[in-house]
Amino acid sequence: MTTLSERISQSAFDGSRLRVVLLLDLQEGAQQQFLDAYEQLRNQVASVPGHITDQLCQSIENPSQWLITSEWESAPPFLAWVNSEEHVKMVQPLHGCVRDTRSLRFSVLRETSNDAVVAPEPVKGRLQANPRVGDGVVRHALTFTVKPGSEATVADILSGYTSPAARVDDKTRLRRTSLFMHGNRVVRAIEVQGDLIAALRHVSQQPEVRAVEEAINPYLEQDRDLNEPNSARVFFTRAALPAVHHVAAGGQEPENVSRHALFYPAKPGFGMTLAKMLAHQDEAAADDPASPVYGSTVFQRDDIVVRLVDLRAPIDRDPLVSLGARGPRKLAVLRRLLDGDVAGGLTTDRELAHFLARADMDLITDRRAPDA
Known about the structure:
The chain has about 375 residues and is of the alpha+beta class. It is built from 13 helices and 13 strands. The chain starts with 7 loop residues before the first strand and ends with a strand. The relative contact order is 0.14.
């Protein structure tokens, strides 16, 4: 799929090469320890499918500041690796050396080389065809599971907190937080105008949010200690549910739009394929003025796919559009990509309505900042 529509502000599926920039601030005196750990890891990274090259750089002004840049054939293989349990374990040796990190990801749009000096080697992947025009909003989600039987208690805790201040700094503000549950799985989707990392740090430091996080700790299936940096880092790394595609119809949002989150448990190994199919469907819907889909964001990690969709009509009015499976054979494709235990037959209207009702996550809270 080639994403050319001007309505798409974010996509991992345009097929272009990816440049990843990782900024690191090391602990005092940890430079050699960090370098030794990196030497152990770089050969493992080089063998990851889709990886092209990487560079390790040290600041000429501050020896504690380091930079790792890597290039990938496209975004999907990088996302599959960076969100894997293998990656979580692989980078553990670096955590003791690093005070702070920041990861930035860019599609390669243009490049310049001096062909007269060095004959260029064939480069895998292609350049991003056109710049995407966005609204300055960054979308991200977290997902985790709670102990079975605690769902009602957790829902009460997560719906009852006081919203933190929307303004982070002069350039960043929180716009919206939508929180859903599907059985014992929690999904928290956030929209940030400006710097996502600054916003996440701001939220984590707010007393009201901290109190909620501590209150749900006893009910989490994955233990964590928010006072222990490595424990918190590992938890939120595993909980990250990246946005891989966002599209919106454009114009002012109608007043009758309702927000839903649909949970799609993919067949093992087919999460990215399912996310790509849904993204393609929503791209077509956004270009259709008669479609009930005003906008959507697809989040994916491993075999967990969540589609956050804003609808201009009741979700059950057109189940195929609401599910992202309208068109010749699209429902059959969706059925093949879903885990067999949840896909069912999906051959009758009743089965389709039943699956849509199961996929539609329970809305716990949807909070918008003033003027968002």
